[in-house]
Amino acid sequence: MGRRPRGGLCGPRHRDHDGARGSGGWLIDGDPGSGRAFEPPRRGAASRVDELPVEPGRWGADGPPQEAYSRVGDTERYRPLHAFALALADDLEAEFDVERDDEPALDGWLTEGVQVVTGIRLRPRRSDAAPITIGLTSFPGVVVGVGEFTRLTLPVCGCDACDEHVADLVRSAREHVDAVVSGGFAEASGGWESFRTERGSSEGGGSGPFGPRRAWAAWPHRPAG
């Protein structure tokens, strides 16, 4: 997972580039020119993360210089992800029938100088629905564990070359979480996972070998009243 960048610059990455699932890879279904909105539900909006200024791109057409891949600069740009993650957990708890654990066991989630400093686990009151565990990291960043095997790491890497933007990471988290709670998530041991909603899909495979695929059910909504 994480490792210190070459040359001892600035501290650890959030994770290595290899094998980390985060903000990319979401495929939109339908006709992009049709005018149809493909926005996921704005869970976590109480954090006001959607009001942050738009971040300009750091690199031009030539891309980042090689040394940027081993440099971790302003990690505090990712601090708003903590407030977003906490607000996201609150919104999910208010919307769905879940048990909440504010002290889940998260040992070993991240290594080499980056740890999970606090966590929340939401377990639906339906055994065939996937739990979601949200970990706030010391980077600062967020790791979202879903089901048995799958983790989403935000930012994926955090190095200067990747130049991951908070708005993109928030959208990715919302899309993936929406797939889980709506019953569009499946996974298998070995690193394969699939996320699907009415707006689009994301599918990936690790190194394998893969175990049997498990499709998780939708979360039950909280009873009215």
Automatic annotation (TrEMBL):
Alphabetical list of Pfam families matching this protein: DUF6226
Residue span of region Disordered: 1-70, 194-225
Low complexity: compositionally biased ranges: 210-225
Superkingdom of this protein's organism: Bacteria
Protein name per UniProt: Uncharacterized protein
Organism of derivation: Agromyces cerinus subsp. cerinus
